[in-house]
Known about the structure:
By secondary structure, chain A is an alpha+beta fold. Chain A contains 26 helices and 52 strands. In chain A, strands 9, 10, 13, 14, 15, 16 and 30 form a seven-stranded mixed β-sheet that branches.
Amino acid sequence: xxxRLQKGGRLIDRSKPLSFTFxxxxxxxxxxxxxxxxxxxxxxxxxxRSFKYHRPRGIxxxxxxxxxxxxxxxxxxxxxxxxxxxTTELFDGAVTQSQNHWPSLEFDVGAINDxxxxxxxxxxxxxxxxxxxxxxxxxxxxxxRQSAGLGKVPTDRDEDRYEYAYGFADLVIVxxxxxxxxxxxxxxxxxxxxxxxxxxxxxxxxxxxxxxxxDGQDAADWVRDSLQALESMENVTLRTRTMASGLYDxxxxxxxxxxxxxxxxxxxxxxxxxRLRAGHVITATGAIERSLSFAGNDIPGVMLASxxxxxxxxxxxxxxxxxxxxxxxxxxxxxxxxxxxxxxxxPAVIDARPSAKGELPEAVRARGVRVLEGKGIAKxxxxxxxxxxxxxxxAGEGAELESIACDAVAMSGGWSPVVxxxxxxxxxxxxxxxxxxxxxxPARPATGADGAAMVTAVGAANGVLTAHDILAExxxxxxxxxxxxxxxxxxxxxxxxxxxxxQGAGPxxxxxxxxxxxxxxxxxxxxxxAREGYESVEHTKRYTTLGMATDQGKMSNINGLAxxxxxxxxxxxxxxxxxxxxxxxxxxxxxxxxxxxGEIFQxxxxxxxxxxxxxxxxxWEPVGQxxxxxxxxxxxxxxxxxxxREIRAVRNSVGLLDASTLxxxxxxxxxxxxxxxxxxxxxxxxxxxxKCRYGLMCTENGFLTxxxxxxxLSEDTWLCHTTTGGAERIHGWMEDWLQCEWWDxxxxxANVTEEYAQIAVAGPNxxxxxxxxxxxxxxxxxxxxxxxxxxxxxxxxxRIYRISFSGELSYEVAVPASEGRAFWDALLAAGEEFGxxxxxxxAMHIMRAEKGFIMIGDETDGTVIPQDLNLGWAxxxxxxxxxxxxAQERSHMVDxxxxxxxxxxxxxxxxxxxxxxxxxxxxxxxxxxxxxxxVTSTYFSPTLGKGIAMGLVRRGPDRMGxxxxxxxxxxxVVKARIVDPVFFDKEGGKQxx
Amino acid sequence: MSKAVSALGGVSHKGFATVAEAGLRxxxxxxxxxxxxxxxxxxxxxxxxxxxxxxxxxxxxxxxAAWMSPDELLILVPYEAAQATVAAxxxxxxxxxxxxxxxxxxxxxxxxxxARAEEVLMKLCPVDVATLAPGxxxxxxxxxxxxxxxxxxxxEFTLVSFxxxxxxxMGLLETASRAGSELFLA
Lengths: 993, 186
């Protein structure tokens, strides 16, 4: 059984016990523990079940590569699934749950899958559930969904906050082991702006565990002194708990800081996503130990050799009294020494190499440990935990030579450099035959904007595994002056690649050799994929799911590649690796969202009168990022009733509309008239000063894109109104043409949308209301329709446009935005005697529809040209050109069969559903009913007491009076007569009084 | 002018930095030939400063001129002085191709104060605040909206956004400046 040792544990503070629960059981750990070390210390060897076979799973590793030990952590608004216990710091009161089992971890019904492993081979999804077809939806999928998946999805709203931060550095060094520290010292001393980031809470990496001596000091002391030196440098920023998640073009590095994972609820943001811009990146990310592929290598108690000594040295945790070590290299002997130093028993070291006579093996032998050369593990004995191993010769087929009883197995298959960041931006790898590893190819790095290398890999991340060489390389890579720190560590004999143990293992053993313990991919699965014709490593990955789990195959992907290469009888570099993609380890969705949640999820644009609307029953409608009042609900009133009330008020007396959101663009200069003649379909250069004109804007393809009233302010200045959603887009469109195409035209533009609060005062009593405010002559003669005046209205600086979108007598009044609310209040006060009524966008929409005015986004959808909308009157025949003109002359655009705007009046007075299609005779190639038109706007008109609609109908204007049919679902058909789209006040008498 | 109110009525919050809406400020967009003698004279008369160089803000008391683009400046004056300044600029630039627009009411102005003020900006703006030179102005974004800021005091930055998103920007500033979320150790 695993247990806490009496002494030792350089990272834990035994004076600070912390309590936590695992599946409801209370356990104890210490400050400095990870969840994994605390679980092991409490003899919780088994921590979960595998994905497919539901086999018992224990802790294998001590870092980011851990495939098994994932738990659901926290409760309620702080619950998060799939938390890796090896990288999660223990905190007092932590609540953890194992995953992927039912009803319990100890007894899991799903484990029956393990007995049926023959029926769940690689690609079983594709093979098993093909027939009968209906069975997938009704039988297989519900079962698979019930039993698949890892953690539970959180159900509560996340209680925590997250944020971004932007950082800049000449050099970002990733990895706080001795390589990263040496590089930071070298670069920091030159005065460069340096960031050194480390994903764990501790500096020093492996060297401090492995007993390396640096410059005559213990590595731990050297690390402590070096950190002190770095902290005193103002140009160096040090951050622990910060994982470099991804490297992107131009030195853009995302770093994920776990600010408060270990102190939940302390008010700090939980995670912070650093968006670093690095002049250069040094990856000192170390290497990850590989597992060995022997039967039963997934049984709880089988661990990586490096992890075993991490647990002993860092956290004072023993994986068991008796640990057998199995290896193909000298480094694993350090684990034997660490175990012996802790007073534990190493029954044997099983070394696959024919001979192990290096300094480390000899040191282990000298302590009385048996070293079995040329041997391997035939299989591990045990179920929910290891009870022993069966020893065989590595060169053979797995016949048992002897059986060794033990509680744990420490395995080492060699080391894989962490090349993720090197590779994210295109850095290439080479196959190092001697060390059997892919490592960065210095000749093919990821390059920056200047074509030079953007990343330098140093130390173990570059395939350099001895401390002395690591320090020298890191020092040099950072441009260090003078001598690099020197290190002394034991010499190591060459390793020997071992991809399958024993090498001649038969099918029965291979079916129990795990390559990917989380996703349950075995040696036999990869070999099967090869037999079935899979050659590309990327295809094999997806077919077998090798390396697709949350650990992304960090520990054993290389083993899988090697098995595939062997099965295909080609060298490993010919197979290559799968693609390394960010993030290095999963990062929280919260960190990706940053501060954007709740009130600041998205910018909300507010007009100066927004608060009034809000306190007066505004039923909001989002328009772009604005909120506009759709209608104002009075107590007990429904939306429909409110809209009708508002329309009646405008038609009969006077209403107010907050039109501040309309785009307002100033266009000025000697060439401004010429410019607007190109932008609009009609003539704007001839508009007299003091007047307004409605205009249409098209894209180069002829399609209507925006409309609005253009105002001539002075000889060389125009003000263009755009739609609410079009202000920024049209301003950008103007600047695009001015900067890129007509750069020699003398025109300046300015977006003054937000400078003004604009209020439409509309209705028969509009004039009376403005006259009551006083200060400007708004009489019919002094201020005709489609003109504008500037002055002081009721004490406000005002510009008034006599324009109408409602068909009523109407003035749109613009005042400085800062005075908008005061002006609105003044209008309400002065209008009281007229029953002045604020109205919303829906009333506006209905009134414009009653008048047959089009609406961008209703009557247009990016495929409609002005001619379709009978707007030929707004298209100048005199102009040589305007944007869209040539396109509108193409044959398809002048086709008389185009759908054109008409009014639609239902025969029974009902309202046609929006978007309904008019049916035509016959069916199309897909067997669908042919169509001849569609509804673009449809409302109940309170003014006329019936449903009115506008629509686009084939040859519509030529078919006045014809009745067409709109099937609206459920076998119901609405009949509507084609009529003139102007339903109300055709002569325009009401607006021109 | 009592009718004129700023978007947020001068609200402020104190976290590890103090963030506040600064109230109304006269702001005028000027477009034209920044190198011309007329522009130099017009800016001098309006603000008492030279025409700012690229990415610079020239400050003189309660007036300033800030570079916005190769052909655009932002003139800052007291709110009450905006209309007169617009008229003066129009007159000074008459005869040359130019555009002068009063945008005093289209903007919201904020101050971020305190020894850690720059950490608030570091969370919202992709700007290397540490290397921001004295008298430098940055047009950038604050999270999802356009913004510009400059160092307006020993421990103070001034940030300008559009008026309609003032509430959003204050939400950002308040959240980013909450005590406990400091970016660096004391």
